[in-house]
């Protein structure tokens, strides 16, 4: 039941005020800062999404993902033996096999993520989106990053958005799915909130 979603209201001035407060928060320093930065590296997807991607530049990206920080810096922090790697390598579906094979060859278990579902515009028929997701998973992607059809948000078709995301999630099978909302194209903070809630409800 998604009828409630159309009644959502976002207090924009309050959101802006809170965002301004966040900028004033104190940051961590010294060893804690280094620890947080190292943790951040392990959460980053190293990504190449260029029209001129080739197997060789995907291979370079995979080597960088395995060794994202210079060895001398890791030794100085006594972290050289802790297995610090990037969180994932993200590529287009056509390059998934290149990334999977390279990471396997270098003995690294970093997951390969693939954008799909008509990335970046989302202006692709649903059947094509689902086929692209299934192919990326078949090629070895362990994470699928989908994009939503922004037109469904802008025209208030919340049930349609729910169904699209639900079908994409089913197409992922065992692969993890992330939903890219393209918030800059959704028109309002209320639409961002609604799309976020629907994406979570759809899995």
From TrEMBL:
InterPro entries tied to this protein: Aldolase_TIM, DeoC, DeoC/FbaB/LacD_aldolase
Source species, domain of life: Eukaryota
Gene3D superfamilies, per the entry: Aldolase class I
The UniProt record lists the keyword Lyase: yes
GO biological process assignments: carbohydrate catabolic process; deoxyribonucleotide catabolic process; deoxyribose phosphate catabolic process
A Pfam family it matches: DeoC
SMART domains given in the database record: DeoC (SM01133)
Enzyme Commission designation: 4.1.2.4
Top class in the EC scheme: lyase
Signal peptide limits: none
Catalytic activity of the protein: 2-deoxy-D-ribose 5-phosphate = D-glyceraldehyde 3-phosphate + acetaldehyde
Pathway assigned in UniProt: Carbohydrate degradation; 2-deoxy-D-ribose 1-phosphate degradation; D-glyceraldehyde 3-phosphate and acetaldehyde from 2-deoxy-alpha-D-ribose 1-phosphate: step 2/2
GO cellular component: cytoplasm
SUPFAM superfamilies listed in its UniProt record: Aldolase
Keywords: Lyase, Schiff base
Molecular function as annotated in GO: deoxyribose-phosphate aldolase activity
Family stated for the protein in its record: Belongs to the DeoC/FbaB aldolase family. DeoC type 2 subfamily.
Protein name: deoxyribose-phosphate aldolase
Source organism of this protein record: Donacobius atricapilla
């Amino acid at each position: 039941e998604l009828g409630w979603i159309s009644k959502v209201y976002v207090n924009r001035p309050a959101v802006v005020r809170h965002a301004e407060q966040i900028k004033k928060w104190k940051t961590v320093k010294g060893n804690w800062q280094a620890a947080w930065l190292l943790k951040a590296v392990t959460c980053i997807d190293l990504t190449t999404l260029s029209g001129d991607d080739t197997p060789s530049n995907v291979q370079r990206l995979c080597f960088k993902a395995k060794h994202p920080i210079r060895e001398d810096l890791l030794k100085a922090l006594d972290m050289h033996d802790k297995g610090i790697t990037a969180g994932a390598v993200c590529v287009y579906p056509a390059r998934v096999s290149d990334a999977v094979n390279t990471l396997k060859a270098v003995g690294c278990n970093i997951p390969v993520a693939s954008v799909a579902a008509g990335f970046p515009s989302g202006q692709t028929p649903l059947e094509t989106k689902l086929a692209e997701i299934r192919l990326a998973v078949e090629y070895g992607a362990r994470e699928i990053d989908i994009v939503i059809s922004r037109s469904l948000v802008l025209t208030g078709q919340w049930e349609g958005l729910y169904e699209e995301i639900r079908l994409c999630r089913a197409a992922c099978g065992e692969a993890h799915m992330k939903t890219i909302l393209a918030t800059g194209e959704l028109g309002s903070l209320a639409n961002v909130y609604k799309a976020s809630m629907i994406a979570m409800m759809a899995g």
